[in-house]
Please model this.
Amino acid sequence: MSASLKQEIEELKKRRKKAQNEADLLEEAKICNQLGDLFSQCGDHRQALHHHQCELSLSEAVGDRLGAAVAHRRVGECECELGNYESALSHQEEHLRVAEELGDQPEVQRALTTLGRTYLHQADRGKVDETDQLLRKAGTAFLKSLDVCDKLVGSVPEREVLSMRSRSYLNLGLVYEIRGDYKSAREFMQKALGIVKELGDTDTVFRCHLDLGSLRLKDHHPTEAVSCFHEALAILKKKPNPQQMADTLREMAKAHLLLSDFEAAKDCLKKVCKLTRNVQGEGETVGYSLRAVRKVIKYREEVEEVGMDRVNERLQLLEKLGDLCSNLGAYPSAILYYEQQLSLAEAHGAEPEALSKVYYSLASTHTDCRQFSEAMTYHEKELKLWERRPLELCSTWSNIARLHEAARRGKSQVQEAYHKAIECAREANSPADLIAVYQSLLSYCRSAPGMKAERRVCEQEVASLLRLHPHSDIPAQDTDTPSLSEDSPTTLSSGGHYLVINLLTNT
Model:
């Protein structure tokens, strides 16, 4: 928290104390609103929630229905940031109900927008099988908010209506972004940007640039993303906001990593560390990523110095570089280092186990990039490598099934891969692996439509196997990201837009 922000908070606390001494509940409610806003700005949503709850109680005590409705909205926004979606929606629905009863159309528009944002937030961070339904609810709320904007024309200043409309366009852009329709998302975001630039609404101009940058990242245009983030940072230089600055720099680091510019990524993450050092848990997470980037820079220098005759040392460095880059979301660099590792391993007659590990790393990283055909190529190499080893084949077929799931391929392809994994587990006489595959298939059946019959079969098989083998040591499933080690930071998320550095991986 900056010194100026601390000073502003202390001044508001003094004013609140004065209002309390004078028993001026309405004034105290206004001050609590301001305090909550300031704590939200610096990312302390628990403190913000406390002050907005006080605002709500005070507004209700003086019979200020509209003030209480607005406080419900503020409380809901804080609960949403904290991941308490049920509570958030309850408060926001109360805000909408009261606004409609009072006939306050501008407040109805804000209520619909806030509800939509909560559904959007929940869709981006909640359960995968609920995403489509939540996105529909979010889209409906934003479209209704646009309808209200039409009704406000002539009765509310044009500038205010345009500002409301721009936010609805921006939010619809985010809905389409999560759906994967990047073209429609960009169109809505650019509509919003055009309006707010004309209005001189710097807050929303910033948000548009940040969201467009994040969108261009997802759409595999990191150079354009960097330009968007520079535009966002230029606004923050005139109107500083530590949390927004950290969010933007975190996303810019992600773009630089995709461009293999590790020095630039390091500079961004150093600034994020400084900005978030007082935010609980966040500074430490960014620190892991920063240390990982520094190790990449160090190992890149070392691999250049290691002679081609020092094969084992070179293989180890290339593997470390690949793993670090993959965990950081620097996928092009990760693929490059894994390919170099594979070429060197093949040239020196590496054992099948060593080759399989590199095949898996390449398949995983291509899957992270949504390059599913390339990923499948390496899984096929694994299948050939293990054609007479059913236990290893079981693992590979399970990974292929999960690849088909990630690629949203047909149910028949997913089922076929899982059934082959089941056959291999039976052939290997491995109850633990058999249970693990059935559990993965069961999880898929629960999320995919039209799978009730297979779901029941899987549930029966799992129950039967667990009765027969109650002490089976079920193996940990392979995931798209290698296990974290001292070289691997943890997932790094941001507090504003739904940004994630994968350690930098997404929404």
